[in-house]
Design brief:
Elements (H helix, E strand, L loop, with lengths): L1 H75 L8 E5 L2 E4 L12 H11 L10 H18 L2 H17 L4 H18 L4 H10 L1 E2 L5 E2 L2 H7 L6 H18 L4 H9 L15 E3 L3 E5 L5 E5 L2 H14 L8 E4 L5 E3 L5 E4 L1 H80 L6 H26 L8 E4 H15 L4 E6 L4 E4 L1 H17 L6 E7 L4 E6 L32 H11 L3 E8 L2 E7 L7
Parallel strand pairs: 12-14
Antiparallel strand pairs: 1-2, 1-7, 3-4, 5-6, 5-9, 6-7, 8-10, 11-13, 14-15, 15-17, 16-17
Helix pairs in contact: 1-10, 1-11, 2-5, 3-4, 3-5, 5-8, 6-8, 11-12, 12-15, 13-14, 14-15
């Protein structure tokens, strides 16, 4: 068998090899398509992220450039607003402005102011510039007391020249200048423009320099005062400004904005960077850093709107800033462009790849199934041919044996009659052999007609006891061994084809006699109340593993007496007869002590 199947196996293996190569190539093509599509998606995502990164970087640079005039103005003018601006030079934060007050607890400026107002302030040395300054202050005060406008103007100019020539300690200069301007506002008739310049804007000193106004002077020299002195002087300057009609709101705002601590920003930067604390910073060399406060969330929302308007993002797309680092270099901002379009495209790509992979797998499974079916079909074909060959040989033997017996008996009968010898049993023996031959032919013809569907059963009431009686008579005629038939069928009758049922019981009985080593052969037919009929014998039995195979055509079970007469069609024909009636036939029990067959007829059984 294996040798005959070898060409089929070789052909299947070669076919599998070619199919595996083809399916593998197809799968590689599908994988390449998926990778190319994924690369295209990644390339588009990367292009959008580069656009978003460049656009956000340009927005930050534009924001700083737009703030540059305000930043330069705030660096020069202490009254200029500095909100949202950052400036650091030589490691010192200039903007936002720091308080930097003297940490002492004394109030020398306040005490000196009180002394000046009371006229008790004295210089330590006669040649000290402070002594000269005190003299000028008193001169202005005396001129104002006399109401001499010209003298007070001359004395004030002299005082201003002395301030431009000598730089005194802030705790002396600012209180002294404040006292002079308060006296001028209280007792004089100052020119409004001059008073505005002295309190706020300042005056040119005639030497390409400038004398700062009192408001700017206090803010510029805030580090020279203790917190108490600064607050005292600020209150006095605000009161003076209100009396002189000079704006003081921005002065108060700048004083309130003074921070006690520098901003916690990085000391070193690799380049322009976005700081998570809300600042965009640009280093300018020499430890010089400029920056502007930014709202990264608002910038990202603006960028998202712009990309949506340009058609680069869907309505539900979003630009997000990734990473948790405190400092994000502008050249490598970790931006992510997220949109459901990517998820849909990724999902569609994955589904297409799974579908194609599934098709390849299905083709492989289908090919395996076809190959398996082809192999099984070939095996069954060869097996059928073997069984057919065995069947032909068996039938030929079965036909030749009774024919030879008939010929021999006939010749012997002829010879004995010619000799006048007694030959009374020879006709019966000839008839028995002919009957066996007829039974074999009837089995073959009946099996063929039923197998081809050409036998239409003639259903009619059949009494089971009559079938048993006929079977008993047949057994007495053709059985060569003693047979004891016991029946318990009562008055059961079946709606069936009587000829087929007789053939069925005859086959079961002949098998029981053929596959039996006991004498007598005992048979029992029992009709049960639910319509089942059991046929039992005391033969050699059927192994349980072979119960179903025993009903296959052309099958004679191994080790069960291949020398016994038969064609291998008896049980197969019996099962087909039961199927024609809509019933079943099975082995109910079997052992070396015998076998019991169970016939189950449909519900048309009557009693």
């Amino acid at each position: 068998m294996l040798r005959r199947l070898l060409p089929t196996l070789i052909a299947l293996l070669l076919g599998f090899a070619g199919l595996a190569w083809g399916l593998g190539s197809l799968q590689r093509i599908f994988a390449t398509e998926r990778d190319d599509a994924q690369a295209s998606l990644d390339s588009r995502r990367e292009a959008l992220e580069q656009y978003a990164r460049a656009s956000l970087a340009q927005s930050l640079r534009d924001r700083l450039e737009a703030a540059r005039p305000a930043l330069e103005a705030a660096a020069l003018d202490p009254l200029a607003p500095a909100t949202g601006l950052y400036l650091r030079e030589r490691g010192t934060q200039l903007l936002p402005r720091l308080a930097l007050h003297d940490t002492g607890e004394d109030t020398p400026a306040k005490e000196r102011y009180a002394g000046l107002r009371a006229g008790t302030e004295r210089a330590d040395e006669a040649e000290d510039p402070w002594a000269e300054r005190l003299a000028l202050i008193r001169e202005v005060d005396r001129a104002l007391s006399r109401g001499d406008r010209r003298a007070s103007t001359v004395a004030l100019m002299a005082l201003l020249q002395h301030r431009a020539q000598y730089v005194l300690a802030s705790t002396r200069d600012v209180p002294g200048f404040l006292v002079v301007l308060e006296s001028l506002a209280e007792r004089g008739d100052p020119v409004p423009q001059l008073m505005h310049a002295l309190v706020r804007d300042g005056l040119a000193d005639g030497r390409s320099g400038r004398l700062d106004g009192l408001q700017r002077l206090l803010l510029l020299r805030r580090a020279r005062f203790t917190k108490a002195d600064f607050d005292f002087l600020r209150e006095r300057i605000v009161a003076l400004s209100m009396k002189a009609g000079v704006p003081a709101a921005d002065f108060e705002a700048r004083a309130a904005e003074l921070a006690s601590e520098p901003l916690p920003l990085p000391r070193t930067l690799p380049g322009p960077a976005l700081v998570r604390a809300g600042w965009y910073l640009e280093p300018r060399g020499g430890n010089h850093v400029r920056g502007v406060a930014v709202d990264s969330g608002a910038l990202l929302q603006s960028l998202t709107r712009e990309m949506r308007e340009r058609g680069l993002l869907e309505a539900d797309g979003q630009v997000r800033l990734l990473a948790d680092a405190e400092v994000l270099p502008l050249a490598d901002l970790p931006l992510s462009v997220d949109t459901p379009e990517w998820a849909r495209a990724q999902g569609a790509l994955a589904r297409r790849y799974r579908l194609k992979t599934g098709m390849v797998a299905a083709c492989a499974v289908l090919a395996l199934g076809i190959a398996a079916l082809a192999f099984v079909a070939q095996h069954r074909k060869l097996r059928f041919l073997e069984l057919k060959s065995d069947f032909v040989a068996t039938v030929s033997h079965e036909l030749r044996t009774p024919l030879a017996s008939i010929r021999l008996l006939a010749e012997t009968l002829e010879w004995r009659l010619a000799e006048g010898t007694d030959a009374r049993d020879y006709p019966a023996r000839i008839v028995r052999e002919a009957d066996g031959l007829g039974f074999l032919v009837e089995n073959l013809l009946s099996f063929n007609r039923i197998d081809k569907g050409r036998w239409v059963p003639k259903l009619a009431p059949v009494r089971l006891d009559e079938l048993v009686a006929q079977l008993r008579k047949d057994l007495e005629f053709w059985s060569k061994v003693p047979v004891e038939l016991e029946a318990d069928v009562g008055d059961f009758s079946l709606r069936a084809d009587g000829q087929l049922l007789r053939l069925l019981f005859s086959n079961l009985a002949r098998n029981a006699c053929a596959y039996n080593t006991r004498s007598p052969v005992r048979l029992r037919i029992e009709a049960l109340s639910d319509g089942r009929v059991r046929f039992s014998d005391n033969g050699v039995g059927i192994p349980q593993a072979q119960w179903e195979r025993a009903f296959e055509e052309f099958v004679r079970l191994p080790g069960q007496g291949h020398d016994a007469p038969g064609s291998g069609l008896g049980l197969a024909l019996c099962r087909r007869i039961m199927r024609v009636h809509g019933g079943t036939l099975r082995v109910a029990a079997s052992s070396p002590e015998g076998t019991t067959f169970e016939l189950r007829f449909p519900h048309t059984v009557t009693t």
